[in-house]
Amino acid sequence: MSTRIYTLPVDQTQWHVESGSTTVFNWEYDETRDRLLTLYEKGKQKQWNTNDRLDWSIDVDPGSEQNGPDYYIPIYGSDMWDGMDEKARYELRRHMAAWMNSQFLHGEQGALICASKIVQTVPDIDSKFYAATQTMDEARHVETYSRYLREKVGMAYPINPNLQALLDDVVRDPRWDMTNLGMQVLIEGLALAAFSLIRDYSSEPLAKALNTYVMQDEARHVAFGRLALREFYPQLTEAERGEREEFVVYACYLMRDRFLAEEVWENVGLDKDRCIEFVQGSEMMQAFRKMLFSRIVPTIKDLGLWGQKVQEAFVDMGVIEFATVDPEDLSATDEEIARGLDRERGLLTEEEVGTAALAGVDPVRAEEVKATIEAGAGG
């Protein structure tokens, strides 16, 4: 994607981060864990081609009020929003779509780098297997968001400074578990919650489908982080575990402040300071930012990184209630929503439709799709 599409100056076309990682080879090819191998099998089976799976012929109007609720625009309800005419609101919607999808894009490239680094640095062979499938997933996500911005939105934003700072820390750290914790659990966990807003509330069909399929992949990535780290963290000393908890607290506050969209306000002719002040005090934005941690909190607890500092930080952010959520239930829901979209679009194989019917998953719709497949085969 050419830098010409960016709405703000891009200082450089590449960003270099020094990392002192150690490459680990493992010759014990038979020492594998069933749950990670199951995840690896699913990773292989669920590969998809963005050019085939998504309908890129759909016309997208990125400034349309029909794409999603205006109340998710951070300054909605302010005197600045109320003073805008429809033309100004149209431009703001378009810029917000560009900004949000740009941060998705940049985060996905960070995930691509981190997944490839995990292949290199993680000591066990089954984790290398799975991280290899994730690397392909992340390449596909970068391709997909880049194409959406280029062809459908027509503009992009540089990486948000808070996201860049966190990626810098994650990529720079040579320890495989810190790469895993920072990317798979924290950044991916936050992204899943943000993707779900588009999947669940947008009326724009291409964005809705795009984020549904990306979430299906990302749910596996978070599950991988949980499985790999849940076995490793009990082996750490108290001091080592304390260092990981300090990082969790730092990263969560950094990510909470990532969604102020400060790059947008001045760029569309608004008073940046007034916009940020409103966003920080907005009840809707407080609820939005709280929801973003719905995936992170239960996973952190599941990993055992649940010391006093972590709990106090989650209380301060108003997200401690998510500690009772089951991360596996969230992943299963993401998977089923993506399968539901496939069923609606007739993209499941006959075997998959039969399996869904036997499992009691939307059997009426499953039979409809199966009948369509049989009719097509007969013709």
Q: Which helices and strands, and how do they pair?
A:
Blueprint: H1 34-45, H2 50-53, H3 79-82, H4 86-121, H5 125-153, H6 161-172, H7 176-201, H8 205-232, H9 238-256, H10 262-267, H11 272-281, H12 283-291, H13 296-303, H14 308-316, H15 327-344, H16 350-358, H17 363-378
Q: What would a concise description of this structure say?
A:
This protein has helices spanning 34-45, 50-53, 79-82, 86-121, 125-153, 161-172, 176-201, 205-232, 238-256, 262-267, 272-281, 283-291, 296-303, 308-316, 327-344, 350-358, 363-378. The protein is mainly α and 379 residues long.
Tell me what you see in this structure.
- The structure is a single chain.
- The model is unreliable at 353-379 (pLDDT under 50).
- Helix 4 (86-121) packs parallel to helix 6 and helix 6 (161-172) runs antiparallel to helix 7 (176-201).
- The protein is built from 17 helices and no strands.
- The protein is 67% helix and 0% strand.
- The longest helix is centred in the N-terminal third of the chain and has 36 residues, at 86-121.
- The protein is mostly helical and 379 residues long.
- It starts with 33 loop residues before the first helix and ends with a helix.
Percentage of β-strand residues: under 5%
Listing every helix as H and every strand as E from the N terminus to the C terminus, the arrangement reads HHHHHHHHHHHHHHHHH
Distance between the termini: 42 Å
Helical residue percent band:
55-70%
* Average pLDDT rating: 84
Low-confidence stretches: 353-379
